[in-house]
């Protein structure tokens, strides 16, 4: 994987080259920071299904509502989604709606009466606008330094053509001063070809200094796949780059992508594609074929994607209505509902009369972990140029489990006073616990030097590390 644009490398006497990570949170979502493991493994951690936060039971919503977006806007959480579309109507019909709800806690959402758009003779509803762009409208809060006040909210919408597999669709831009009143830009976005017929997501990538758009295209005319392009002005876009995977990773149908920079670790890109298996049918009486789940994949440059975990991040579960074709779609966006928890949202029961959105809870920066069982295991990092004073761990153990840490020099030799034997076993559950050896927790004497960290785990998970500065 080519990550040279993001990372600084130095020569190392063995194994992987040394890296400078500063004070960033480094999650164990791939093997990038790992030089060796023995008796330990990388483990994907599934989210916890929580509350149903919205049922699309209003006349202007219904069983075909989908393509949810959640935005954290200060203390307010904004929710956008497609509402009504007539059954059997073409994707390009003007008779469809974008709806809006909001929340203060990410759990209890209310539909404000906006008075903006009539439905069956009344504007007492939460509809933002109607038209073909409502089909898959996806907004974002523009964090770029040159975002204008009247366009601080932006969005995209586009329904492709009658045959989206030709990849000749058009994507349109929209802007808003407040997230409620939207205006379509005069001309379509100058963006190269794509299908654009599902949820296309855009965000400002502060690490790269560009807008990124992840959108759907059809690979070889038949596989639903993900590609991306970039822009420095939101209007003119680079050539599309298909997501690249390691050799041997099988082609799967990715209906949506839900790509985000990880909050608090924005140098890492996370994606939650809805994996569609069109040839299967679980519920015989359902009129449509196909089943879906959600996968998890990561990137360090936004183009090369790591599928360390081929298994599902979110399974349909025991609910029969989640075993019909277009459920289990993760909404675009991540909300920090508490200092210790991320919230994601997933659609359930698509095409059913109780079509709905459910919250998912994820440990902060706990998507995956280095994990070892009761027999214990160990992991040693690649060389790291130390730039901080304290080592902080996001970890969890059982009551009988533990984690011990050793700091080694660049040649793999324990540093005096920081060896395994110099530390009492660490146990508990903490998102940012400072590692304490018997005589010190201070690593400032080794600032600027190359070190490795060796972790010995017993019935424990190590989710992430950070090297913090206190001086």
Automatic annotation (TrEMBL):
Superkingdom field: Bacteria
The name this protein goes by in its record: Glycosyl hydrolase family 32 N-terminal domain-containing protein
Source lineage: Bacteria, Bacillati, Bacillota, Bacilli, Bacillales
